Automatic annotation (TrEMBL):
The keyword Ubl conjugation does not apply. Keywords: Membrane, Transmembrane, Transmembrane helix. The keyword Zinc does not apply. It comes from the Bacteria. It comes from Streptomyces siamensis. InterPro entries: PQQ_b-propeller_rpt, PQQ_rpt_dom, Quinoprotein_ADH-like_sf, WD40/YVTN_repeat-like_dom_sf. This is Pyrrolo-quinoline quinone repeat domain-containing protein.
Amino acid sequence: MRARAAALTVAVLLCGAVIGAAVALVATGARGTPGATTCALLWGVGLIVAFLAGFAVRGRVSRWADAPDTTGDTTGGNAPLDAVDAVDAVDAVDAVDAADAVEAADAVEAAEKARAAPKSAEPSWRGTTARSALAFVVCLCLVGGLWALWPGDEPDRRPTAKASAGAEPPAKPTVAWHVAATGDRYDEGPGAWGLGDTVVQGRVDGLSAYGVRDGAVRWSVPAPAREAVCAMSPGAAQGVGLIAYGKHDKPCATLVAVRTSDGRKLWTRHLKGDGLTAGGLGSGGSTAVTAEDDALRARSAETGTERWHRSLAQGCEPRAADADAARTLFVEQCGSGARLIALDTRTGREQWTRRLPVESKTAAAVVSVTPAVLAVSEDDRRGTRALLGFDERGAPTATVPLSGPDGDVVVPKGIPAGTGREGRPLVYGDLLLTLTERKELVPDVVVAHSLKDGHKVWEYRTEGVSTDALAREADGRIAVLISTVDGGQIVLLDGSGAEHGRIEPTHAEDAALSIRPELIPVRGGHVVVNHMSMSGEPAVFSLR
């Protein structure tokens, strides 16, 4: 009997393992690869099922073996001998399973003793039932404890914040979209506006606005027949941008305000005389500022109604103007001298005036309104050709030569000095950042000068590539657009000039740069506008 119990126990364990493995495989196919806890619990369930089934089988066999023979001798033979024969048959099977001949003899002897003992199956049945119930409770407790105490290795499906250090590495930047070049080969666009989720490209034939995520055309403003866009405000404040049209060999004299949300023309004004001065258009909050033939004028950006004007003195000419919401800067030349005037943008009241260090005809451009920074270049080859900085009261603070030991500086359009390439220096806190041509025939150095006294603070050199544009990132870093043999890339610098990463896109053939690109940081990436296409470079493309 002991051997039979041992054999049955082994069979139960083997059946439990097989059933548990089968249940685990089914769960794997249905839900994917389970964790260790799941596998253990599923195997345990299978073991319990087989264990209980084994106990039930043992109980049935025990009751059948212990019950008295009530069928009688149907053959007329001796009933005790028939019972002995039946028991012998059952025990013989057990003996074969145990592979022990002696066990069969023990089984016969046990059967003879059972016939002599009082016949009552009820106590055996109750004992078997009690043992099964006890085994069931014990197994449930074991599985419950396993569930509660097993270390959790299942994936946690609750929403949690994941640290960046353990996150997947970001995908390699790529050219998300691009706009093919249009127009003639050397057509030069007047500018661009970055408007959050939209970028507006100025072309000679009008304006086109693109969504920064997909490059879809949001709106467009075509130029009138036989007219070209000849001027564009550096920015678009409070949802209004300014452009101007002009005919061939005619003044740039048609001023238009455009609502940047949908491209609607808000108003149009036809300027008198020689029209708009080159570099004389600014968007100052709700005020449109223009340097015209005979005056500096301010109009409502929404309606075009004139708010104030400042007439030019006899013999004076406008040279440049720009504005923000609080201040307007205006450069005028009277004879051989010139001066910088600061006015309140809302009222036109003069804040201060500063004579410029020039003694001949001078070209000028406003680099920054606040703080005040100008680019000036005299006709006199021994005269002033420099970037000039001023404090809040108009006192000179910094002078950065356009050509000198640090190289030739990239300057705004209309300034005949420096490298001959067009670009806008970047004001970064108390620093003035410039692109400088030193060893190569293209700009190859970023130089930072202090606006407090003009001394050089740091420089960043790029070997064998061209530095083409500067921009400030939303997080405060400095973005430098460079041109390599593989196409456009972006170098990210901190405020001390140390490199903090690069954006090297795939599909570099779609990121080709022209000789006058502009870099516009946008949410989730950058947009580059090529203001001139010489060899089929895309007009606009996005790096994400």
